[in-house]
Amino acid sequence: MLFLNHLVMDAYTPEQSKTILTDMVLPGETNPLNNLFGGELLARMDRAASIAARRHSRRIVVTASVNHVAFTRAVPLGSVVTVEAKVSRAFKTSMEVFIDVWIEDRESGEKTKANEAIYTFVAVDETGCPISIPEVIPETNLEKERFDAALRRKQLSLLLAGKIKPNEATELKALFE
Ligand SMILES: CC(C)(COP(=O)(O)OP(=O)(O)OC[C@H]1O[C@@H](n2cnc3c(N)ncnc32)[C@H](O)[C@@H]1OP(=O)(O)O)[C@@H](O)C(=O)NCCC(=O)NCCS
User: Does domain 2-139 have CATH number 2.40.100.10?
Assistant: First the structure.
């Protein structure tokens, strides 16, 4: 399959870009409530996501936008935090990376979903110019759902950044028709 992807399709599955960072929450990384500082989590997610984007594109990548972050659960001091990032869809030069964050119970070892986020990365050449990247082939149901909704999220992000006009956001418009 990998052989086929390289030769015929130039495409990779989300699993092939999967990047997992596991680390503890230390005292210097917390807020006054002794929970992980939001900016620290953003940095950990950015790091994992940029490695996933690099694995998918085999290029230099830069963060173009942070499209969505949900800090649904506080992450207490001492927690073991796992950040898992996968490229959910690739466009021409940009790619969406989905990040799931889990915390691990010390005694049972059970993992609970704490946060999630969606970042956009752009592959660039040595001069910083955007460059074409391989496609993504989603495999699981969740990967297919994320793949399908990614164009809508890209259009929303471009709209909010003032890079497209409302009438160009065709996928978004279709939601209201
Ligand atoms: C990201 C960057 C390369 C985009 O450059 P640009 O001149 O806007 O290039 P383009 O308009 O051709 O956009 C390139 C791709 O990014 C996408 N893109 C640009 N801004 C985006 C945004 N806000 N949301 C989603 N996608 C975006 C475009 O849609 C395009 O995607 P496609 O080729 O897959 O269709 C450029 O803005 C940059 O280098 N920014 C700084 C990045 C950086 O330093 N990040 C770290 C922050 S500290």
Answer: no
